Amino acid sequence: MTNKPFDAEAHVDAMAAAVGLAIDPAHRPGVIRYVRFLESVHGRLADFPLAEALTPAPDFEP
Amino acid sequence: MTGAAATAVEIGAAVRRGRLTAGAVTEAALARIALHNGAINAFTVVTAERARATAQAIDRMVAVGGDPGPLAGVPFAVKNLFDIAGVTTFAGSRIHADRPPAAGDATAVRRLVAAGAVPMGALNMDEYAYGFTTENSHYGPTRNPHDLSRTAGGSSGGSGAAVAAGLVPLALGSDTNGSVRVPASFCGVYGLKPSYGRLSRVGMMLFAASLDHAGVLARSVADIGQVYDLLQGADPLDAGVTARPAEPSLPLLERGIGGLRIAIAGGHFAEHGEAAAHAAVARVAAALGARQRVILPEPERARAAAMLITASEGANLHLADLKVRAGDFDPMTRDRFLAGALIPASWYLQAQRFRRWYRDEVARAMADWDLLLAPATPFPAPELGQETMTLAGQEVMIRPNIGIYTQPLSFIGLPVLSVPIEGPGLPFGVQLVGRPWGEAALIQVAAELERHGVVAAPVAPNFRP
């Protein structure tokens, strides 16, 4: 199985619909550009090995 | 003593002893703001009426033998994301300008006022703290007092500029990825970002709660220490504030650096910047006798994780407004906020789990050291509007690179004090990086550097009387 290349435009359309965000066509190119950047940023972390015991950093005290 | 160069500690001592009135100090500060703010655009609101009333109350108290506190009559101002009673908290936005005035002071403001300080107003910033240049489309750019064509840094740019121009001796800022340390570096002043959770954020508009810190900018180490000591302490309204007892820094000011183990951050922190940035670190290292280099693991990944957490939490905080009035956001932040709202949960959570890993690994790397040295910014203040620059022979985007040295440190809440190195040319900041809860040692070392003239934060030349 190979990973498909990230499709920033499809991601923006799908996630914006899921979140309930109507993105103005004038803002869309900039949003797509930054989502593409964030995906590349995530790429630096995606395969970084983290032990299962490493929980997300924020703590919560009841 | 009423002049631009007076420090907060000097003013406080003089007013407390009745040698100077808070009224005179306040009028002098108001006059400086009236004269110079047009040039640097640091203040968005001047609270002259409250300042005068506060000063009168202090002078009355001193006249009857009372003690207003160590900051008696000291003018201060705050980034406009801190609540000031009766003033609308813009947080750099047009959207929040529609909100009613704050009902009370932020905890940090309240603690300074309780120590006798006089609130002069609110200071410009990047919208919702999402930027490093204070090029705010709603309220105009803040200009660097050392060169008016250049940025003061951000997002606490108004705080850096107001202090560097001597309009006030101290200002509050906030730091999520470098927003106290960047303006401190570009404006040539001291900027303290304490450990994550050390200071209350109640009444401070958040940006990315996982990473937000309150901080302080000033022109003397004693002022930084005094304010830091006053701001410490639990806050029942902020569950994120540590229950650790306050650890005052002032008793350490005269102690020197004996016994402290100081090294230089190598690798990432010794690369990527202009030669002058690394020369500034070398100058501080030589003064402190620091020779050994310590490599922190994976700082580039730390930056990546900090970016994702910031984008995601920031967008979530403003999602309701992004849905109905995205057009009212500053074009400098809007697309980034919108994009942040579209981050999958797994990207965000991987970043938060990496944060745990990175904290543990950095703790191991720093185990034998009390303090590391690193540049605060890779270059001095760029021109306003400048998009790219040549760095090590390569053309790089400026704004995404301003925080390369600050972001990997605030990401895990390490305490950092940026200390100013004077030119030739523009000032540069050097980060004194402590272990968690090690703020007092940073102030202790900075005091030693200040005593020996290695670091200094004089009022910017164009603003000296």
In terms of DSSP E residues, the strand content of chain A is: under 5%
Query: Which strands sit side by side, in order, in the main sheet of chain B?
Result: 1-3-2-8-10-9-16-17-13-11-12
Q: Based on the structure given, which CATH architecture of chain B is correct?
A: Alpha-Beta Complex
> Which oligomerization state do the chains in this entry correspond to?
heterodimer
CATH class of chain B, please? Answer: Alpha Beta
The count of domains of chain B is: 1
In the CATH hierarchy, what is the superfamily of chain B?
Amidase signature (AS) domain
The number of helical segments of chain A is 2
* Overall pLDDT metric of chain A: 92
Report the biggest beta sheet of chain B as strand number plus sense, adding barrel if it closes: 11 strands, mixed
What does this structure look like?
The complex is a heterodimer of chains A (62) and B (465). Chain A has 62 residues and is mainly alpha-helical. Chain A has a domain at 8-41. Chain A is built from two helices and no strands. In chain A, helix 1 crosses helix 2. Chain B is of the alpha+beta class and 465 residues long. Chain B has a single domain, classed as Alpha-Beta Complex (Amidase signature (AS) enzymes). An eleven-stranded mixed beta sheet of chain B has the order 1-3-2-8-10-9-16-17-13-11-12, sandwiched between helices. In chain B, strands 4-5 form a two-stranded antiparallel ribbon. Chain B has a two-stranded antiparallel sheet with strand order 6-7. In chain B, strand 11, helix 8 (275-288) and strand 12 form a beta-alpha-beta unit. In chain B, helix 9 packs across helix 11 (334-340). The longest helix of chain B has 21 residues, at 345-365. Classes of the chains: A mainly alpha (62), B alpha+beta (465).
